[in-house]
TrEMBL record:
Domain of life (superkingdom): Eukaryota
Record keywords: ATP-binding, Cytoplasm, Fatty acid metabolism, Ligase, Lipid metabolism, Nucleotide-binding
GO CC annotation, single: cytoplasm
Reactions it catalyzes: a long-chain fatty acid + ATP + CoA = a long-chain fatty acyl-CoA + AMP + diphosphate; (5Z,8Z,11Z,14Z)-eicosatetraenoate + ATP + CoA = (5Z,8Z,11Z,14Z)-eicosatetraenoyl-CoA + AMP + diphosphate; (9Z,12Z)-octadecadienoate + ATP + CoA = (9Z,12Z)-octadecadienoyl-CoA + AMP + diphosphate; tetracosanoate + ATP + CoA = tetracosanoyl-CoA + AMP + diphosphate
Protein name (Swiss-Prot/TrEMBL): Long-chain-fatty-acid--CoA ligase ACSBG2
Domain AMP-dependent synthetase/ligase: 144-568
Species per Swiss-Prot/TrEMBL record: Pagothenia borchgrevinki
Homology family: Belongs to the ATP-dependent AMP-binding enzyme family. Bubblegum subfamily.
Main location: cytoplasm
Segments of skewed composition (Polar residues): 76-104
Length: 773
């Protein structure tokens, strides 16, 4: 078994049928009640930080705020009532507490736990007590509740030139209503999509929420999608309207608009229009459409909405095949936001406002949950980063905004680490020694704290000193000095990166979940933190480990009101994801420790099953190769239904700062590694395809070392090749969270893979010295 390595009014009366999870079988584990960037940023290396060690920031440190946060804010729990505040009128919801047999998933006449129809309702997975029993809300109800409680607080803030603009919660809600009326005027039909294609902005949020209020589906489309991929999503959700950021995104839609029979209008929210076209609107023109429209039609739609109906579609990025439209109900979103806020103990804006920076792709559930819904739930403020955030400007935004919570996918943290290390490596011996000392103190102190499980121990003097002269400076340089909650999630992160940040007194709290679980299932928190664990379930959710092996590793299955409604128009796929009892099967392997912490140990969904029937998890082998040969940036193991294993390799190269495309030039680190091998290579093209014998020999030697440790012959890499181009997001080999899109890579390199398996006595490529065993 793989060990984790790297790897939205009026009176609305309705009845919601409730359901509790099935009793777990004996084989099931007891549920735990308790889941080219930053160039300038990290140039604030330990080096410079040690230099300015004696300056005092005079500002509240994250650690100091942490202590202040220990009093749990209960204000967010105002939904435990049958009278739901809903805009300008009250809204009574009757919630049945009847508990049907959960196996009656499709009992006649009442909604089941899942559906594949966009206009259908589902049975909510409500419990008898606690958060699971909270009154379900529509998005409108959650929003109007936020407006009542936090109306004058800043909700959204962004930069226009040198000016900082913002909307408070009252303005935010009214703007969404106006946009919703505009959508209706443009012909948005019930249960049809509004596609949103662009970088994070106030217009993105407003389009998303307005689509929901107007009775459509909010549908984020990845900005990196090709025109055909945009077409697939727009067609699948029967999009009536597509909101695009700029000319670049507009062009993609114009290329495929003839193939989109439901499309009625396109709105461009940034830059001037390059040409006038019928049904193409600027944001200002669009907003003008709804400004003087009467409220009646919109109010009628809003009042007819139920929490158990779909409002959002999240399209999976395709790491496991064709993207699927994950249907999320109002309750999925509003309840998951509530549970998450409680779990991570977010403060209500009336106490102290949470501040976040929005920069991760909003078509992904993680960014939507954190930036839009969780923040709304507590009246937080969302500041928008610049479109070039991941090319270097993010740190400037962080330093200006000083968020109180920050979420990065592993690649973001890895990039920060790489940059800090490379700058640190150039510093003087004395400074490096101080940095090494401080990091050692930081790691040891934090590991000790972690092992004391929250028990108050004495803080060593050395830690206090290291904090003063190094840690505070690091946080300030990263714009994280107010940030008590740094999160990583959506993909596996390496222990090395977790330890690196822990040693700098920045514990990364891990989130684990899926689009199908409306984002988080488990989250680690300061009070319950274990390095490399994804923490424990958010309240009201349950985990079972299906088919556990002797070490306790089983498939992680989810239960709770965060579990999705189903895949749009994909009944079969939905039935594959949900078992007969309604548990969501994640396709991930995991185990619990004795304290109920969840550890992800593998991905069943990417298991290789060789022609000989051996099941091989690829990630540990790929990680081992990357560790053995530091020159390698990406490795992908091939072998499904094949006689032996082979591997596609890429070499560390420069990335174009504007396009994010991999270039031919090697990274300075890769050049240095080549020099040490005696090679003068400075370009990928000089080493790919086995052109450089020295590099080739070094890689083979590394692979031999990995093969020596293989637990069976079938797990040995027999053939390999260095590709001409590194994997990348624009190239399509990596998804938005930087997970490898294996089916895409297999298609792209079909020929090279076929060559591996041609029946030849001699090697088929120069990189292929070993005959299959
Ligand atoms: N903290 C984590 N550690 C390890 N893996 C994680 C973590 N969080 C999420 N994942 C992985 O990401 C998966 C969820 O992916 P997500 O629902 O975000 O879809 P996606 O990125 O669009 O890709 P896909 O096309 O595979 O569905 C989980 O099943 C798990 O494999």
């Amino acid at each position: 078994m793989q060990e984790r390595t790297g790897t939205v009014n009026i009176v609305n009366i309705f009845v919601v049928t409730v359901c509790e999870p099935p009793a777990m079988s004996e084989a099931v584990t007891e549920p735990h009640r308790a889941g080219g960037f930053l160039e300038s940023s990290c140039a604030a290396s330990l080096d410079g930080i040690v230099d300015t060690a004696n300056e005092s920031s005079g500002e509240e440190s994250a650690g100091e705020r942490e202590e202040e946060m220990s009093a749990h804010d209960e204000a967010a729990s105002s939904t435990k009532t049958t009278e739901v505040p809903a805009g300008r009128t009250s809204n009574t919801q009757t919630v049945s507490t009847q508990r049907p047999n959960s196996l009656q998933v499709h009992a006649a006449g009442e909604p089941g736990l899942w559906t594949s129809q966009g206009d259908a309702e589902v049975k909510l997975r409500m419990g008898d007590s606690g958060l699971a029993a909270e009154t379900p809300l529509t998005v409108n109800q959650m929003f109007t509740s936020a407006v009542e409680r936090f109306g004058d607080h800043t909700a959204l803030s962004w930069k226009e030139g040198e000016q900082q603009k913002s909307l408070n919660y009252k303005e935010y809600y009214q703007t969404c209503r106006t946009a919703a009326k505009s959508f209706l005027k443009l012909g948005l039909q019930r249960y049809h999509g509004v596609g949103i294609l662009g970088f994070n902005s106030a217009e993105w949020f407003i389009s998303d929420i307005a689509a929901i209020l107007a009775g459509g589906f909010a549908v984020g489309i990845y900005t990196t999608n090709s025109p055909e991929a945009c077409q697939y999503v727009a067609e699948n959700c029967k999009a009536n309207i597509i909101v695009v950021e700029n000319q670049k995104q507009l062009q993609k839609i114009l290329q495929v608009e003839d193939k989109l029979p439901h499309l009625k209008a396109i709105i461009q929210y940034k830059d001037a229009l390059k040409e006038k076209r019928p049904n193409l609107y600027t944001w200002a023109e669009f907003m003008e459409l709804g400004r003087d429209e009467p409220d009646a039609s919109l109010d009628a739609i809003v009042s007819s909405q139920k929490p158990n109906q779909c409002c959002t579609l999240i399209y999976t990025s395709g790491t496991t095949g064709q993207p699927k439209g994950v249907m999320l109900s109002h309750d999925n979103i509003t309840w998951t936001a509530l549970s998450t806020c409680r779990h991570v103990r977010l403060k209500d804006a009336t106490v102290s406002q949470e501040v976040v920076v929005s920069y991760l792709p909003l078509s992904h559930i993680a960014a939507q949950m954190v930036d839009i819904w969780v923040t709304m739930r507590v009246g937080g403020a969302t500041y928008f980063a610049q479109p070039d955030a991941l090319k270097g400007s993010l740190v400037n935004t962080l330093k200006e905004v000083r968020p109180t919570a920050f979420m990065g996918v592993p690649r973001v943290w890895e990039k920060m680490q790489e940059k800090m290390k490379s700058v640190g490596a150039k510093s003087s011996t004395v400074r490096r020694k101080i940095a090494v000392w401080a990091k050692d103190v930081g790691l040891q102190t934090n590991l000790t704290k972690m092992n004391q499980s929250g028990a108050a121990g004495r803080t060593p003097l050395s830690y206090k000193l290291a904090k003063k002269i190094v840690f505070k400076k690091v946080r300030k340089a990263l714009g994280l000095d107010r940030c008590t909650k740094c999160y990583t999630g959506a993909a596996p992160i390496t222990k090395d990166t977790l330890e690196f940040f822990l040693s700098l007194d920045i514990p990364l709290f891990e989130l684990y979940g899926m689009s199908e679980s409306t984002g988080p299932h488990t989250i680690s928190i300061p009070e319950a933190f274990k390095i490399t664990s994804c923490g424990k379930e958010i309240p009201g959710c349950k985990t079972k480990l299906h088919n556990p092996d002797e070490e306790g590793n089983g498939e992680i299955c989810f239960w709770g009101r965060h579990v999705f409604m189903g895949y749009l128009n994909m009944a079969e796929k939905t039935e594959e994801a949900l078992d007969a009892e309604g548990w969501l099967h994640s396709g991930d392997l995991g185990k619990h420790d004795e304290n109920g912490f969840l550890f992800i140990t593998g991905r069943i969904k990417e298991l290789i099953i060789t022609a000989g029937g051996e099941n091989i998890p690829p990630v540990p082998i790929e990680d081992a190769v990357k560790e053995a040969v530091p020159l390698i940036s990406n490795a992908m193991l091939i072998g499904d239904k094949k006689k032996f294993l082979s591997m596609l390799l890429t070499i560390k190269c420069q990335v174009n700062a504007d396009s994010g495309e991999p270039e031919d030039e090697l990274t300075p680190q890769a050049v240095e590694l080549c020099r040490r091998l005696g090679s003068n290579a400075t370009r990928v093209s000089e080493v790919s395809g086995g052109r450089d014998r020295l590099v080739h020999a070094a890689i083979q030697e590394g692979i031999n070392r990995v093969n020596e440790k293989a637990c069976s012959n079938a797990q040995r890499i027999q053939k390999w090749i260095i590709l001409d181009r590194d994997f990348s997001l624009p190239g399509g080999e990596l998804g938005p969270t930087m997970k490898l899109k294996r089916p895409v890579v297999v298609k792209m390199y079909k020929e090279q893979i076929e060559n591996f398996y041609k029946e030849l006595a001699t090697p088929t490529t120069p990189d292929n010295p070993l005959p299959p065993k």
